Amino acid sequence: MLVQDRDAPKTKPSAKSQIRELPTTTTHHQQIRRFSEPKNLDFSTWVSENLSRIFIVSLSIVTVAAFFFLYNTTDTASLLCFQSQSTQSIQPLARPQIKWNSIQVLPDKTSPYSSFVTEKWIVVSVTKYPTEELKGLVKIRGWQVLAVGNSMTPKDWSLKGSIFLSLDAQAELGYRVLDHLPYDSFVRKSVGYLFAIQHGAKKIYDADDRGEVIGGDLGRCFDVELVGEDSKLEPLLQYSHENPNRTVVNPYIHFGQRSVWPRGLPLENVGEINHEEFYTEVFGGKQFIQQGISNGLPDVDSVFYFTRKTTLEPFDIRFDEHAPKVALPQGVMVPVNSFNTLYHSSAFWGLMLPVSVSSMASDVLRGYWGQRLLWELGGYVAVYPPTAHRFDRIEAYPFAEEKDLHVNVGRLIKFLLVWRSEKHSLFEKILDLSFAMAEEGFWTEQDLKFTSAWLQDLITVGYQQPRLMSLELDRPRANIGHGDRKEFVPRKVPSVHLGVEETGTVSTEIGNLIRWRKNFGNVVLVMFCNGPVERTALEWRLLYGRVFKTVVILSSQKNVDLYVEEAKLDHIYKHLPKIFDRYSSAEGFLFVEDDTVLNYWNLLQADKTKIWTTDKVSKSWTSVKLTGKSDWLSVQAELVKRTVSTMPAHFQVNYKEAAKNNLDTLTVCSSEVFYVPKRLVTDFVDLVDLVGDMDLHYKVAVPMFFTSMDSPQNFDPVLGSMVYKKKSSSFNSSLGLYSAQAPAVHPWSISSEQDFIKLVGKMAEGDPLLMELV
């Protein structure tokens, strides 16, 4: 049933209607000609006089017929998609221009609660009949529960003591955001936030209908009052800003759970489990967003949920309730959810839930977006000890719902830290950031328009935007003196790790992950994918991103959504200088093709200041005797000779010494895996420049580069013991090749998620943390 009255858009006449009108037009012309002067009816004369008309009419008929054919034979959705894409390609993204002073404040005159006003609200999205936990929320004194329905909510939903906004009731409110909201999603809570603000809200507790407030008192759990007699103006512990490279933290470590991480934490940060060496302090009163920790089933992602237990028993994870609350300084972020979070009025603008991203990414993206803008007000986020208990109903959600998180969240955090706006009001800065995020692909133009509607609705319901303050992020950071350091050592509480109770120190598996991350945490992994990146790119990042600084994925075709860069494998070495420049602080760069598996646990002994290559693997590194024929090898040999002749003396000497002045052979290396240390990056780039536009194949260029940069005697032999065989025709035939004791294995074909699962099952022998991914 249509519940929102909207004017139907005016549509152009369809091709069918145009064709139906054609006879009418023709009849009309015939009627006009009936009163014209009689003409000579000789056919040849008539044709000569009307030749141009005949041509035009014929062309029109053909055009209409062609369109009619396309209209009836082409998939309508595809045609509309094509039209949409064409329009988008012509029209660039436009930043909304809003006349704020022309927006009128309008009271609620349509709902049965038009005269109801209260300051404290609990907003919940409801899909099923009231849960026991929701019934408990209604009993919390001084707080009004607002339940927001969607298309899946039972029509007869009711709970005494609560206000229920059905789809029909929402439509009656007339908010601008209604035109942008999906009918079947929890993001319709945005309507509830506006309703609460319109009815006097000063605090909004963003809640979940399966969360039970511990002790039944939100005032005991959070700092509900930030001003006045009831406020607690005590200083808060604050994460240190001493490390400028740290941009995000896992708050669960502070509360005693080092092997648990929140949804929205970049997976590359999962292995960072050490507690803080020290904290600083900040005055209370501006913690406008307060994130509560949940016992039972904390807010975790599907990677954690599917890899931390082997049975159908529900999670019951507990955090240290005695740990102090902790604040985040400007420049450091934390995941924020919509399940257990208190918003004060100064941050109400940050309640907007994006609509163009996957459902499990919406509140997390909102949280990072809101934190960045909160700094413009001098406010901050604080994380509080367990405030709620969420019950695990063993209802897992698909991994695909988190795609926008695992692909983009790390990049989003980096983007937010460097983003700046010159606007002089908060709402204009919000529009600026939303526009910039749409341009960068973190969300779409739909959310840019939604932001515009949301901000206008905030003014309409009576919200006044807070005043800006100077951004501390741009000031020189003060040195943290010894007296400013505050110590707190988290208490280790029992946890669940791979389905086993964890009661003492960090498990051996986590310890190994720390060692690997410490060793390779500043090494960039560059992977070229020959297989379908849409099926494997995310998996490769999940696998290797835990260990390496970052995973740069290249392919023959660019994929913006998956952050895959375009490159040609034949000339892959020409693309590497761009990556070297991008990660100039990295210790080194490890290149691998997706048909080769890296057993990173067996690479720890390798010297990261030396070249790693397969010069000791006879089937990979070979010297081919030239026959003098005009074949591919001879052409490549001529290009090598031409390049060597232009090399500086030190390169030439190294190369000729390695070749032993034997000009009748050509060194060819398959180059599926190799490592370039930081100290030789400049030499590598210089050699790429010497090659220039020559069509020198990477299997010839890479060994030439390495023997020119250094003597093979100085190469690290770590890859010499890798498993290397000629490529098999099928994936199954390579299953027996794998060895967890080898540093790398080739070949290994990955073209689907099922192939990836088989690989992970094999690699779990060396990295047991992967075991539950099988």
TrEMBL record:
InterPro entries: STL-like. It holds the Pfam family STELLO. The chain crosses the membrane at residues 54-71. Residues 1-29 are annotated as: Disordered. Keywords: Membrane, Transmembrane, Transmembrane helix. The keyword Transmembrane helix applies. It comes from the Eukaryota. Residues 1-10 have a biased composition (Basic and acidic residues). This is Probable glycosyltransferase STELLO1. It comes from Raphanus sativus (Radish). The gene is LOC108812406.
